Task: inverse folding
């Protein structure tokens, strides 16, 4: 029986996929085997001994201590792409709001009504204060062409925009999702020089902190509109506010508000609405649950942020999965112990990701538990799991 602890409200569409004869699922589970979480902070969470995996129903994992998880052999999963359509729609909304000042015009009408003015007598005269450009035939620059960025690129192309994208880590799968008319540039400054709108869709890390800073803004067109639906720290507040004051940036739209930003009337802010749709929450929950199931029951990994994707069909009579450091001779040490105990290897898969690696071994004969303990004692081995 697996114990799954939920630390946020997880869509029942996902939770209902867990067989209750095999899974106990609640927010009150203790010594849990896995955690399902959305935004709850786990940075200081005390990991129970049995904890094997954490699945984040969303793309970002800034609320999870990934390094500490890696050191203790806990797989961390995310759900890339599950909320991509919801965020894509918010980007389109952000472009329109920053172009036509819809928010300002609506607020003006309400203020006039509250003052007792017959608004039908003033709309024609007052509307010129809120006029703005169409997005048709304008240029958008997209930084990050993953699941969300690719959708944004393709929809903007269909809206008649000229689309430029930049992604130094563009995968083959992501590239195949892009329409051939999208300009993928190798130098982000080319994107900055051309774009009327700049939108960022990258993960937040120490390397991506302040991606949009004073230097980047200096390369952009005057009057550019900047959209940030990724993470607040990717755009430098000092730089964006200074650029709004000079008119270098016409509008800044962000899903990550703070009091300082909200004091500027050229900032349009949302309370982290990007993925806040029932469809997105359901998609994220289903993906997170499926990732946990496959890992807990079969040891297969898909969409882990700290371990490589490794998956193979079950064969043999027993499976062993090993999380270990990515160091020389590890596979030789593992197979050496198995052969010493006359255990035949039916199939084996191994991949690495940074400092860590993961090995799946399907065995032709039953493995004595003492051998598993010997493998766990190999220097560099972090966790061993055995499946009958």
Result:
């Amino acid at each position: 029986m697996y114990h799954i602890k939920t630390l946020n409200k997880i869509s029942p569409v996902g939770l209902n996929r867990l067989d209750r004869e095999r899974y106990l699922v609640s927010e009150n589970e203790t010594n849990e085997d896995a955690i399902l979480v959305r935004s709850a902070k786990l940075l200081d969470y005390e990991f129970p001994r049995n904890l094997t995996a954490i699945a984040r129903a969303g793309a970002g994992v800034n609320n999870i201590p990934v390094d500490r998880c890696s050191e203790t052999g806990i797989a961390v999963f995310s759900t890339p792409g599950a909320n991509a359509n919801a965020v894509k729609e918010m980007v389109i909304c952000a472009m329109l709001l920053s172009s036509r000042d819809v928010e300002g015009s609506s607020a003006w009408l309400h203020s006039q009504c509250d003052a007792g003015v017959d608004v039908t007598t003033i709309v024609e005269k007052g509307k010129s204060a809120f006029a703005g450009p169409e997005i048709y035939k304008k240029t958008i620059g997209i930084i990050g062409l993953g699941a969300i960025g690719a959708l944004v690129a393709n929809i903007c192309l269909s809206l008649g925009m000229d689309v430029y994208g930049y992604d130094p880590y563009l995968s083959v799968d992501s590239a195949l999702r892009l329409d051939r008319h999208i300009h993928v540039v190798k130098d982000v400054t080319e994107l900055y020089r051309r774009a009327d709108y700049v939108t960022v869709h990258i993960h937040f890390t120490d390397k991506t902190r302040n991606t949009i800073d004073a230097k980047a803004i200096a390369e952009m067109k005057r009057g550019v509109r900047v959209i940030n639906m990724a993470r607040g720290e990717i755009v430098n507040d000092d730089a964006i506010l200074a650029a709004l004051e000079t008119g270098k940036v016409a509008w800044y739209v962000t899903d990550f508000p703070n009091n300082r930003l909200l004091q500027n009337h050229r900032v349009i802010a949302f309370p982290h609405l990007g993925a806040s749709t029932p469809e997105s929450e359901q998609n994220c929950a289903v993906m997170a649950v499926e990732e946990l199931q496959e890992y807990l029951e079969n040891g297969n990994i898909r969409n882990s942020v700290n371990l490589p994707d490794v998956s193979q069909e079950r064969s043999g009579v027993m499976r062993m999965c090993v999380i270990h450091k990515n160091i020389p001779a590890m596979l030789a040490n593992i197979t050496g112990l198995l052969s010493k105990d006359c255990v035949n290897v039916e199939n084996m898969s191994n991949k690495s990701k940074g400092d860590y690696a993961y090995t799946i071994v399907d065995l032709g004969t039953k493995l004595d538990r003492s051998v598993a303990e010997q493998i766990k004692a190999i220097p560099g081995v972090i966790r061993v799991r055995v499946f009958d």
The mean pLDDT is 95. The chain has 14 helices and 16 strands. The radius of gyration is 25 Å.
